[in-house]
Amino acid sequence: MSEKFKVTIDNIVIEVDPGTTILNAARMIGGDIVPPAMCYYTKLQGSGGKCRTCLVKVSQGSEKDPRPMPKLVASCRTTVMDGMVVQNITSPEVIEARKGVVEILLINHPLDCPVCDQAGECHLQDLSFEHGAEQTRYEFKRRTFERIDIGDKIQLHMNRCILCYRCVFTADQITNERVHGVLNRGDASEISTYITKAVDNDFSGNMIDVCPVGALTDKTFRFKNRVWFTKPVDAHCECDKCSGKVTLWYKGEDVIRVTGRKDQYGEVQDFICNTCRFDKKKTSDWTIEKPTEIDPRSVISANHYEMEHMLPVIDKKIM
Amino acid sequence: MAQKILLKDIDVPGIETFDVFRKQGGYSAVEKVLKTMSPEDVVEEVKKSGLRGRGGAGFPTGMKWSFLAKPEGVPRYLVCNADESEPGTFKDRYLMTKLPHVLIEGMIVASYALGANTSYIYVRGEMMPQIRILEKAIAEAKAAGFLGENILGSGYDLEIYVQPGGGAYICGEETALLESLEGKRGNPRIKPPFPAIAGLYGCPTVVNNVESIAATSWIVLNGGDEYAKIGIGRSTGTKLISASGNINKPGVYEIELGLPVEEFIYSDEYCGGIANGKRLKAVVAGGSSVPILPANLILRTVNGEPRLMSYESLADGGFASGTMLGSGGFIVMDEDACIVRNTWNFSRFYHHESCGQCSPCREGTGWMEKILHRIEYGHGKMSDIDLLWDVQRKIEGNTICPLGDAAAWPVASAIRHFRDEFEWHVNEPKAAMEGNYGLAHYADPLPVPAAPSELVK
Ligand SMILES: Cc1cc2nc3c(=O)[nH]c(=O)nc-3n(C[C@H](O)[C@H](O)[C@H](O)COP(=O)(O)O)c2cc1C
Ligand code: SF4
Ligand code: SF4
Ligand code: FES
C-alpha cells in the first residue's frame, strides 16, 4: 500500500495520493466545493495557474508545518500535503477574490453571447452566472480584434479569448509542429498562428474543444444552431488516427457537429482527429452508443431529457 | 567618508581595463578562492556576511546559495540578472559601465562557490554599450587566464556568456529571465519548482543581481564577518542607491546601510538637498514598485524615530506607514510634483509591461491606468478613487509573479497617503489641470502616537 495524504477541503476529509493537486482532490470529492477552472486541463501538460479562478485558501499547510500559506494559491497547480486544510467556498476571502477575477475576465469581454456559438456550453458564462456582478464597473472602450480564420475549419474570435493558453498547449503538445502561440504582451496579447497561417495538422480541431469560451469555434457548425436545441449522442467509429470516440450533436436527423467526449468539467476524454470531427457528418459513419450524459442543470439538458420526476398531472376540474 | 566597497576605485583612470583593475588588486579574490578555499568555504563566508539580494527582494544570498540542489551529473548554473528595468533604478548599469571587472570577478567567485562551469549575464537589451563592455572584459579576463579551462591551474573551468534581453521589464523576474534565456517567450514560471531545484534547462540554478554578485569578491577577501560589521542589524554592508528626481545631485551613491534618510537627501556627500530651494513632498525609496511615502513619513517613522536607509527601517510600519528598500531606486519629489500624474505614469508602465499571463494583472493593470488617466485629465469621479482601491486589492497577492503586486502597491500607497490630492483632482478639475496641489500638509510633523495600538491603520 502506498502512502496516502489526508486533506480537508471545506471541512470534508479525503485521502489522496501524494502529488495530487488541491483541485483534483476537490474533484474527487465533487459537488459545490470544486473550484472553477478556466485554464487548467488535465490532458495538457503545464496548463493551469493563469486564470486565477481556482484560487483557494490554505489555512493549514500540512500536519508537520501547520502554518497557513500567506497568499491564496492556485488550486490547480498546488499539490496537497499530508494534513493540509483548504478552504474554498467556506472562505469569504476566496469568494471575494474569485468575484474579482470574474469581473476582471469580463471587462474586455464583448458579452456577445446572443451571437456566440459557445453560448450554453461556455465556462465563462457559467462562471459569471455564479460569481459575477449584475453590472460592470468598467466604463472604457473594450479591446477589439478582427476575426481570424485559422485554416478553413476554425475561426478565432480573439475578442472572446481569456488567454487561458489551453489552445497553445494543445497546438504544442498534440500537433507535431508548433505554429500557434501568443503574440504581444499584457492586455495586447493575442492568440495567433504566425501571421494567420493555417494550423495544418490532423489534430488541430481539438483547439476548439479545449477553448473554454467562444474564441475558437468550429466553422462547419457556425450559426447552425444553439447548442440547447441540439441533442448529443455518444458514438464511435473505426479510425486509424484517433480513438474514434466522439459526441455527435444532432438537430433532428442531421449530425451538425462532432466533438470529443467531455466530462463534467468540460475536459475531453480523448483527443479526436480532424477527419472524425469535420468530415464524418452522416449517421451512417458512426455506431451510436447512447445519449450523452449531461449535467441535468445544464441548458443543454433543458430540451431533451425526461425529467427525473414527472410533474403531477393537474386535474383541471378541481381548480 | 563612508566605506566604499563596490565603487572604491571608480575614480582610478582606466579602471575599466583589465590591467589597471589588476594593478589595483583586482582578481585577487579569484586567486584566493581557487587556491585556498573550497566552494563550501565561499558559501559559508557569504552566509556570514549577511549579504542580502540587491535585486529587490532582499533574500539572503548565502542562504539562497546553500539551497542549490546538487544532483550528480547535472550541470548547475549561475545567472546574473542584469535586466535592470525598474523605473528609478540604474545602479547596475553604472557599475557595469564603469567597473565591468568587479562584476566579472564576482561572477567567477560565485560560480566557483556554486560549482557552475557555465554562467550567464542576462543584460537588458537596451544596454548595448554595456554588453560590449562586458564582452571586452570577459575576453580580457580570459586572455589573462582567469576564465576558460583549468583557471590558474586549479582544475576549475568556467565560461561566462553575455545574453542580451529582448527589452521587457518582466524578463527581470527571475523565472521569466530563465525562459527568455532558453529562447522562449518571457513568461514567469509558476513556482514551485524554484530555480534552485529546476532552473535553466531544468537544472539547478541561482539567479542573482549584479550588485549581489559584485559584492562577493570583497567578502571572500576580507571575510564575511568584516562585511557584517558594516551596516546596521540585518542590513549588512553597503548598497548602491540610484538617486533621481528633484535633487541637486542625482546619481549613483554607495552608502553604508543604516544611513539616515534625512542625511542621504540633504547632505552634500549624497543628494545635496532638494533642487531650486524647493521643499520635499514625497519619496519613492526603492524603485517604482515600492509604496510612495510623504515627506513626514519618509524622514521619520510613526514612532518619531529617524528613518534609516536599511531594509528594516524603511519597512517599519508595514504597508500602513512604511515602504521598502527594494532595488534602491530613490526617487525624490518636490512640492511641485503631482502625485496623481506620477501614479498614472507608474501604472502606465506596469500596464505596458505585464506579460499578460494571468488575468488579474493582464486586465487589472490596464483598468487602473485608464481610471488614473481619467482622474489626471479632469474627468474623474469620486467613486473612481474607491474603484481604484478595489481594483488594486483584487490584483495584489492573486497573481503568478510579483509584477501584479508591484503594480498595485504604488496605487494603494498613493491613495492611502495622498487621498486628498486625488479628491482635489476630482472636485477641482480645472485647477488641477492648470496648477498643482503643492506641498499641502505632507511635510507636517507627525503626532507621535501614545501607544503602539493606535498605529493600526
Ligand atoms: C517584475 C520583476 C522585475 C524584476 N527585475 C529585476 C531586475 O531587473 N534585476 C534584478 O536583479 N532583479 C529583478 N527582479 C527580482 C528577481 O526576480 C530576483 O529576485 C533577483 O534577480 C534575485 O537576485 P538577488 O537575490 O541577488 O536580489 C525582478 C522581479 C520582478 C517581479
Ligand atoms: S482561444 Fe480559447 S483556448 Fe485559446 S487561449 Fe483563448 S480562450 Fe484559451
Ligand atoms: S503577474 Fe503580470 S507579469 Fe506576472 S505572470 Fe501575471 S500577468 Fe505576467
Ligand atoms: S484553473 Fe487554476 S489558475 Fe486557471
TrEMBL record, chain A:
GO terms for molecular function: 2 iron, 2 sulfur cluster binding; 4 iron, 4 sulfur cluster binding; metal ion binding; oxidoreductase activity. Residues 3-92 form the 2Fe-2S ferredoxin-type domain. Residues 93-132 form the 4Fe-4S His(Cys)3-ligated-type domain. Transmembrane segments: none annotated. Its main location: membrane. SMART domains: NADH-G_4Fe-4S_3. Its cofactor is [2Fe-2S] cluster; [4Fe-4S] cluster. The keyword Oxidoreductase does not apply. The keyword Electron transport does not apply. Keywords: 2Fe-2S, 4Fe-4S, Iron, Iron-sulfur, Membrane, Metal-binding, NAD, Translocase. GO terms for cellular component: membrane. Coiled coil: none annotated. Belongs to the complex I 75 kDa subunit family. This is NADH dehydrogenase subunit G. It comes from Solitalea koreensis. The lineage of its organism: Bacteria, Pseudomonadati, Bacteroidota, Sphingobacteriia, Sphingobacteriales.
UniProtKB/TrEMBL annotation, chain B:
Its cofactor is FMN; [4Fe-4S] cluster. Keywords: 4Fe-4S, Flavoprotein, FMN, Iron, Iron-sulfur, Metal-binding, NAD, Quinone, Translocase. It catalyses: a quinone + NADH + 5 H(+)(in) = a quinol + NAD(+) + 4 H(+)(out). Residues 340-385 form the NADH-ubiquinone oxidoreductase 51kDa subunit iron-sulphur binding domain. Its EC number is 7.1.1.-. The keyword Transport does not apply. InterPro entries: ComplexI_51kDa_subunit, NADH-UbQ_OxRdtase_51kDa_CS, NADH-UbQ_OxRdtase_suF, Nuo51_FMN-bd, Nuo51_FMN-bd_sf, Nuop51_4Fe4S-bd, Nuop51_4Fe4S-bd_sf. One of its GO terms (molecular function) is NADH dehydrogenase (ubiquinone) activity. It is an enzyme of class 7 (translocase). GO terms for biological process: cellular respiration. The keyword Flavoprotein applies. NDH-1 shuttles electrons from NADH, via FMN and iron-sulfur (Fe-S) centers, to quinones in the respiratory chain. Belongs to the complex I 51 kDa subunit family. NCBIfam families: nuoF_fam, PRK13596.1. This is NADH-quinone oxidoreductase subunit F.
